[in-house]
Amino acid sequence: MKKSIAAILMLIVIFVMPVTFAATYPNHTRDFYVNDFADVLSSETEQMIMETSVALSEATGAQIVVVTIDSLDGQDIESYSTGLFREWGIGDEKKNNGLLLLVAIEDRRSRIEVGYGLEGALNDAKTGRIQDEYLIANFQAGDYDAGIAGTYLRLAEEVYAEYELSVEDLQSSKAYYNPVETKSDSEFTIFNLLIGIVIFILMILDLIFNRGRLTRLALYALARGSKGSSRGGGFGGGGGSSGGGGSSRSW
Amino acid sequence: MKKGLIVLIVIGVIIASLAGMVISKYNQLVVLDEEVNMSLSQIDNQLQRRNDLIPNLVESVKAFAKQEREIFESVANARAAMMSAGTVEQKDAANAELTGSLSRLIAISESYPELKSDENFRQLSDELAGTENRIATARMDYNNVARKYNSVAKRFPMNIFAGMFGFDDAIYFEASEGADQVPTVDFGN
Questions:
Q1: pLDDT digits (tens, 9 = 90+) for A88-135
Q2: In chain A, what are the domain boundaries?
Q3: Which of A38, A81, A129, A209 lies at a CB distance of 3.0 to 4.6 Å from A113, suitable for a disulfide?
Q4: Which residue, A244, A240, A236, is CA-closest to A94?
Q5: B50-106 residue pLDDT tens
Q6: In order of start, what are the domains of chain B with their CATH numbers?
Q7: CA distances (Å), B111 to each of B104, B115, B168, B185, in order?
Q8: What separation in angstroms does the CA of A150 have from each of A39, A90, A132?
Q9: Cα(A56)–Cα(A162) distance, integer angstroms
Q10: Residues whose CB is less than 8 angstroms from the CB of residue A83 and which lie 6 or more positions away in sequence, other chains included
Q11: Which helix (H) or strand (E) element contains residue A68?
């Protein structure tokens, strides 16, 4: 009996599994625009990328995403980056104006992948030249942080030009990005303490006289609430796609 | 008498449900057929784009490596074959051949340092590599849609009716998987 259930489950798994991309990609971070899996970026660079990308996305829907990984696990960087680009849905769903800077540290390979909508602004040759000028030399000197920051800024500049925005727009729209949870961890005041005590007493009363119905209800509402808001807390892809445009380099 | 009626009703129900199935699958096939054609035209766009790139690329290589006649010839032949290819199979074969010739063309830059560092050549080979990659992506997308289409067309009940309605099998675009290596030049050093 158990065997047949297992067999049925296996069949379901086999048939439901999508055939499109065999490889699996990491989930993006809450920040979405910066995914420093290889841990080569300074916090200043990450902050700069977040501020710029968030402002740009708010203004135009264009999304510039930076991903660093240790290894491609034998896959070629072109198919990996197209797959990742599509899985994360970088860029606006209609405009397809996403941009991905992917760096695989151990493989010594980098790639700029361009969504359909930005191919006019950033043709393959241009993305190659940007890597030649800003990425390669820094990487060869071992300074990944500077290489990525320079390349990123150059790309952002191109996208800003495409949407006829100036660097001033970029500066002034920094306010869009509020670093996640900057609120100092809940100040401990007498007022908070009093509220805590009152809630505790009410819970005890609820447990004694009401079998804890209200407490359960409150907990349930809290759980639902946090489920709903955790999605809004981070950033995510807009559903954009790429047809494989861009260029790759090794260093 | 009553028995005959029941049998008739059962047969009627079977026929009706079969007809319903065929109609819904038919509609599904119409949509998928459209998708297959769209994906195919995506491949065509990129093949065309590459064909347009080739003359410039060849010229820029010729400027530094005139004597590599044999490669220029093979590129020219493969390009001509590509342009005259009509069916999916022909395009698939011509594409594999052209990709092979082009990667040899790009590879000779390794023996001509001046060519390798030429700005124009670098740009063109980036464009070529990008286009090759777009072709590879478009092929993969096409094959996925073709697979979906075929799985509907070859399964009951459409395996009986697909031919009748004029739905041919979609042909996969996957000749010589190894030959589609995107030509890359290591500009890093």
A1: 999 998 999 999 999 999 999 999 999 989 998 999 999 999 999 999
A2: 20-176, 187-221
A3: A81
A4: A240
A5: 999 999 999 999 999 888 888 999 999 999 999 998 888 888 889 999 999 998 998
A6: 28-180 (1.20.1440.20)
A7: 12, 9, 48, 12
A8: 17, 21, 11
A9: 12
A10: A21, A23, A25
A11: strand A63-69
Calculate Rg over the CA atoms of chain A: 24
- B44, B125, B137: best to mutate for the A interface, most A CBs within 10 A: B137
Can you read off the two tokens belonging to residue B36?
A: 């297959």
Buried b (16+ CB within 10 A) or exposed e, B75-91: beebbebbeebeebeeb
Question: Are the beta carbons of A179 and A49 closer than 8 angstroms?
Answer: no
Q: Which CATH architecture has domain A20-176?
A: Roll (3.10)
Chain B residues with CB under 8 Å of A78 CB are 133, 136, 182
For residues B129 and B184, the answer to whether their CB atoms sit within 8 Å is yes
Residues 6+ apart with CB under 8 A from A162: A62, A118, A120, A121
Contact A247 B137 (CB under 8 A): no
Tokens of A43: 């916090």
Kind and range of the H or E run holding A248: strand A245-250
Which chain B residues are Cβ-neighbours of A136 within 8 angstroms? 187-188
A125 shares contact with chain B (CB less than 8 Å): yes
